[in-house]
Amino acid sequence: MLKISEIYSSIQGESSYQGLPCVFVRLTGCNLRCSWCDTAYAFFGGEEMSIDEILNNVKEKGISLVEITGGEPLIQEECYGLMTALCDEGMIVLLETGGSIDTVKVDERVKKIIDFKAPSSLMVDENDWSNVSRLTAGDELKFVIGDRADYDWSLEMIKEYELEEKTIINLSPVHNVLQPADLVKWVLEDGLDVRVNLQLHKYIWGEKAMGV
């Protein structure tokens, strides 16, 4: 059984899949407490559901792209079985994970989006950089940027781990904290091969909307 915060259809708001119809399966619980977290409602509560119940719910929505998210989905051991079951159904499965938990047990068919935490999150010491060695084709990284210090730190990590050569990199400004134009300016000045990643759903429905 898995504790599920919500399952809903929307468009993918982030990553290289931005704008595509997607089913979101949000698991309850998180091992981190980021300063800018926008899904704290998923820390507690939720409904117990079996993998079969989740599969049926997802299939009823008729969308082949599915994201497993949280909270931090990997703190629930049954999450691995859920992702495998979704892959077995022929779905494109995305996993958004916070970068603090080893991804070695994630099905190789799953496309991982690893959200390493920058200093302003107050969770930077929780990053498990061994996950870089487990990146496979189709995986992506995300750095949420709250200020110039976060940007400079992210640039340092990109260079240290040679990330531009390994995977797609998304830099996402904290909504209503860092102006996107400032982030774009820095990226262009430094000639980075990265994607500036705005949270599209927040521009469509507002920053406090749930289930979208």
What can you tell me about this protein's structure?
Helix content is 24%, strand content 24%. 36% of the residues are buried. It has a 9-stranded mixed sheet. The protein has 5 helices and 9 strands. α4 (180-190) links the parallel β8 (168-173) and β9.
Share of helix among residues?
10-25%
Structural class: alpha/beta
Query: Which word captures the global form?
Result: globular
Q: Give the H and E element order.
A: EEEHEHEEEHEHEH
CATH superfamily: Aldolase class I
Residue stretches low in confidence (pLDDT < 50, at least 5 long) are none
Give the strand order, joined by hyphens, for the main sheet.
3-1-2-4-5-6-7-8-9
Please describe the topology of this protein.
Layout: E1 2-11, E2 21-27, E3 47-49, H1 51-60, E4 65-69, H2 79-88, E5 92-97, E6 111-116, E7 140-145, H3 148-160, E8 168-173, H4 180-190, E9 195-196, H5 200-205
Parallel strand pairs: 2-4, 4-5, 5-6, 6-7, 7-8, 8-9
Antiparallel strand pairs: 1-2, 1-3
